[in-house]
Design brief:
The protein is of the alpha+beta class. The chain has one domain: Lipocalin, CATH 2.40.128.280. Helix content is 26%, strand content 38%. It has 4 helices and 8 strands; from the N terminus they run ααβαβββββββα. Strands 1-2-3-4-5-6-7-8 form an 8-stranded antiparallel barrel. A hairpin with a 3-residue loop joins strand 6 and strand 7.
Length: 164
């Protein structure tokens, strides 16, 4: 009888400990919510021969950016506003915007954007802190490679989003 009580107490303590651990950890979702401004596009990896590596710039200019993102939803978005309800507003320099749905997949390292036609785009989140985000996506335009987009979080995100 005493042994059964000890087993029940240990099992209850383990279940309680696991529950506390799962609910108290930080989620990537918490850092993502807010307004982010695009600051740079770079090639992270290029699919080129090694002997030509020195002659290709890792910087992406506006023309190349336009070509890379021609079929993508984000091609005119300079500011991304993530809401906690799963909506995202993508805004260009003029304040024109488009609303989509977003969710994290995998272990919280894949960002999926879905538009009203259920077409979607996937981005790999390489780093995410309170003030900086780096996401990657693959492209086949020109010198094929992985494009790295860098964002900085804007302060006073609620007022900024309301202004737009």
């Amino acid at each position: 009888m005493k042994l059964a009580i000890i087993y029940m107490a240990v099992a209850s303590a383990m279940v309680g400990l696991i529950t506390v651990m799962l609910t108290s950890g930080e989620h990537p979702h918490d850092h993502l919510v807010g307004t982010w401004k695009e600051t740079a596009w770079h090639y992270e990896k290029l699919d080129v021969e090694e002997d030509h590596e020195g002659s290709i710039s890792l910087e992406i200019d506006h023309q190349m950016k336009r070509e890379i993102s021609e079929q993508m939803v984000i091609h005119k978005a300079e500011v991304w506003h993530f809401r906690s309800n799963g909506e995202i507003g993508l805004y260009d320099e003029s304040g024109n915007g488009k609303k989509l749905d977003w969710r994290l997949k995998g272990r919280g390292n894949i960002l999926k954007l879905v538009d009203e036609n259920n077409s979607f785009e996937h981005y790999s989140i390489k780093s995410l802190s309170e003030n900086r985000m780096e996401i990657h996506f693959s492209t086949d335009i020109g010198a094929r490679g992985v494009v790295k987009m860098i964002f900085e979080k804007l302060p006073n995100t609620i007022t900024y989003a309301e202004e737009i």
